[in-house]
């Protein structure tokens, strides 16, 4: 949204409560925004007129073919062959979009000759000096990397993976892979070898890009031993070291030499079908091996054009900063800013080093207009008394996702950045690689609430019987197909695992796994995960990953982990319960051993806030651990409302958790 008349909002002097109006669209919103441009285009080109967001949203889900074909034309999607239809079938799963069309995501991300001199990427790192690239320099780097991958034998349909930090080399590797019609997947360098192999081994990569270490604040982290374990588990992959920082990976191809030696080739883009695999994102691994979620070129292209331009209002004059690792879907969302010619700031390091103002200082130094952050980060800034009012910030939009943002967070953003700054809070997921419910500039912003449904997303709340509910808690569902729904799960040829993940509960309707409440105006708030997935500071963690590490310790016979969300938007409390092996004692030494094992094998985010001993881990009669009942007990729900003793393998196994909940209410730690 370009500068103009400030929106009508309450004065920042007054604190806000849930439901208070904190931002309203300006009178000239249709002239100033990308979604306003779409409305004008629809009236001019299609003869369609809409009063506002609700009318536009209703049309977008009632006439899927009309809406998505309009976006195809509005954004000028470049196809090497035309589609024979927009949507071949609305059936879920199995909907097929734009059959016959041939395109390539990377072709749209790398700009045109007109963009060559414009800044595309600003790399900021605690490991090395700044790295900035124009669109022209990015295109040249992708062309060289593409040629190098060809020399390594990579072809259409092959997989290239990155065990990498959030640096420009990861972006170049991804776009070069996509240009060939090969498929990309990535994991953060902080992930332990087991977590990485649980993911990468599924896709059997032919090339593995790695870094040997990094700096995390003042700490230098050597990851060469972990890289060695990962490469040993991927014997078919050629290993390329991007030569980041001071740690070189032995017996690996060097990124610089590889690109320099590759023959000069023209940058061309392999035309692929709309649903051709672009990238694989991985689920948290809650119920076992992480699901390898395949997203297609066309689905990510069209969804991110829609989301970034129409919901986030990004365009060529914008610059986005959103701290992310390469393991999170927000990394893909960050990269896709290039589709709308916004530039991006890629950050690597400790997001709070040397203090919480580091990211805000970078935003000031780099001229960021769009600042993305988790609710936990915003609330931590508030709690620490961070004061931004003296800074020369150009931020006009703040987007927050990953967990609910309490009203105090809305108030803090407004007070610190000004009432004209647009705060867009949303919720979505890895599964669709985008937002499901969120704001756009046509909608007001109310404290503690998400303003509406994303365009093209037929989202509702269902009760257990599959009936829509309004004004009460229900399962978040999507009743009509989206182009960015998964093409498949890798290694699931008959689609049975995908169907079980999303469509078994409500046949023909997508069940997302969140609790949500919609009001009669479409406003909503997400109340947390409805399954056992752990959501720590917006990053989903899987319980199965914990168990594989913890239960290998000699002192631990069994274990169970739960996460208790923080009502103020923080990281919450991660509690690990252990059933000890005979003769073992739960002392501080064992707690340190558990924490060290989880940090080394998985990541620092997997380290629990407390480790508590229990006589037995509760399971049902089929042997499944009862994470959700334990969580609900610790949240104060009576045992009788959580589980029947008759359904437990050990009828008394939940009693210690009831006693712990009572002690915690009385102020005891354990």
Automatic annotation (TrEMBL):
<dbReference type="GO" id="GO:0006629">
    <property type="term" value="P:lipid metabolic process"/>
</dbReference>
<dbReference type="Pfam" id="PF16177">
    <property type="entry name" value="ACAS_N"/>
</dbReference>
<dbReference type="GO" id="GO:0005524">
    <property type="term" value="F:ATP binding"/>
</dbReference>
<keyword id="KW-0067">ATP-binding</keyword>
<dbReference type="InterPro" id="IPR020845">
    <property type="entry name" value="AMP-binding_CS"/>
</dbReference>
<feature type="domain" description="Acetyl-coenzyme A synthetase N-terminal">
    <location>
        <begin position="54"/>
        <end position="109"/>
    </location>
</feature>
<dbReference type="InterPro" id="IPR042099">
    <property type="entry name" value="ANL_N_sf"/>
</dbReference>
<dbReference type="Pfam" id="PF00501">
    <property type="entry name" value="AMP-binding"/>
</dbReference>
<protein>
    <submittedName>
        <fullName>Acetoacetyl-CoA synthetase</fullName>
        <ecNumber>6.2.1.16</ecNumber>
    </submittedName>
</protein>
<feature type="domain" description="AMP-dependent synthetase/ligase">
    <location>
        <begin position="115"/>
        <end position="481"/>
    </location>
</feature>
<dbReference type="InterPro" id="IPR005914">
    <property type="entry name" value="Acac_CoA_synth"/>
</dbReference>
<keyword id="KW-0436">Ligase</keyword>
<dbReference type="InterPro" id="IPR000873">
    <property type="entry name" value="AMP-dep_synth/lig_dom"/>
</dbReference>
<comment type="similarity">
    <text>Belongs to the ATP-dependent AMP-binding enzyme family.</text>
</comment>
<dbReference type="InterPro" id="IPR032387">
    <property type="entry name" value="ACAS_N"/>
</dbReference>
<dbReference type="GO" id="GO:0030729">
    <property type="term" value="F:acetoacetate-CoA ligase activity"/>
</dbReference>
<dbReference type="InterPro" id="IPR045851">
    <property type="entry name" value="AMP-bd_C_sf"/>
</dbReference>
<keyword id="KW-0547">Nucleotide-binding</keyword>
